[in-house]
Amino acid sequence: MQYSIFAYGTKASEAFTLPSNDEWKEVLRNVAFSADQLSFFDNMPQSQLFRSGASAKNDLKGLMRANVPICVNVLDTSGTVRALIGQYSKQQQILLDSGAFRLFQHNMKTGEAQQLDFELVLNRYREIIKISHLCSNIHFACPDIVGQQTNSMALISEYLADITDLLHMCANMLIPLQKGPKSISQCYHDALTTIPARYHQQLIIGLPSNAAALSVDEVLSFLKTDTPTRVHFLGAKANWFIKLNT
After folding, report:
1. The predicted structure's pLDDT at residue 237
2. What does the alpha-carbon distance between residue 22 and residue 38 come to, in Å, rounded to a whole number?
3. Could you tell me which of 157, 141, 171, 154 has the C-alpha nearest to residue 232?
4. Residue closest to 227 by CA, chosen among 181, 189, 171, 172
5. Residue 49: CB partners within 8 Å, gap ≥ 6?
6. 206/142 Cα distance (integer angstroms)
7. What is the pLDDT of residue 196?
8. What is the C-alpha to C-alpha distance for residues 240 and 242, in angstroms, rounded to an integer?
């Protein structure tokens, strides 16, 4: 089974000072988990670790020089950055993010109920994919609403024409499967029924591992029962990966 594992917020090593109280134990434990996560990925050549924070031109150019897979919130990108992403797709994997998780965090913090403009998101996806030097290196996140299973599944049908258009250009699509009244397995098969079979090899299944997270048991049960070709652990922290791997 192949895993495409996307981790957000990975940064270069930074100096830190140990606190004087008992918090130093937690600090060292977090450092150890970070080291274990890097070792975990290094020992799994079939996995991908996507670096976020590439929405600004200078940040993107730095990651391009490092030649690493990147994750970009398309709503934060300028036309110049989108053009660079299209060029960079010739040499590396790229994940185009809709910003759904960031909006979820905002709504939770403020009590608001803002919604994403998915037409704008999909148009940004399309712009990048059309100028991409290698569309098969592009992964885009399917429209979804974090923590809302029914509404997220409905969005697949609502935007199916746009989705199939992007898949027809040979890009890959990440489908986040949210927790809800249906099992993850049922949602998975509903998605496969909705999306034409000729595009199934371009699908990556997203499993929530942070907000509205699945348990490790739920994840392992799904992987063993349904055997998806590729999975993406949404927002997983280092210790979650290590626990899954034990």
Report:
1. 55
2. 26
3. 141
4. 189
5. 5, 6, 7, 10, 41, 68, 69
6. 10
7. 98
8. 5
Q: Output the pLDDT for position 167.
A: 98
Q: Which two tokens stand for residue 166?
A: 């992007």
Among 30, 11, 15, residue whose Cα is nearest residue 68: 11
Residues 159-200: pLDDT tens digits? 999 999 999 999 999 999 999 999 999 999 999 999 999 999
The ranges of the chain with pLDDT < 50 are 1-16, 18, 24-25, 27-28, 31-33, 40, 238-246
Place of tokens 């950055």: 81
Predicted pLDDT of residue 170: 96
Identify the pLDDT of residue 178: 92
Query: Which pLDDT belongs to residue 150?
Result: 97
Instruction: Give the burial class of 143: count Cβ atoms within 10 A of its Cβ; 0-12 exposed, 13-18 middle, 19 or more buried.
Output: buried
3-state secondary structure string, the chain? CCCCCCCCCCCCCCCCCCCCCCHHHHHHHHHHHHHHHHHHHHCCCCCCCCECCCCCHHHHHHHHHHCCCEEEEHHHCCHHHHHHHHHHCCCCCEEEECCHHHHHHHHHHHCCCCCCCHHHHHHHHHHHHHHCCCHHHEEEECCCCCCCHHHHHHHHHHCHHHHHHHHHCCCEEEEECCCCCCCHHHHHHHHHHHCCHHHHHHEEEEEECECECCCHHHHHHHHHHHCCCCEEEECCCHHHHHHHCC
pTM above 0.70, yes or no: yes
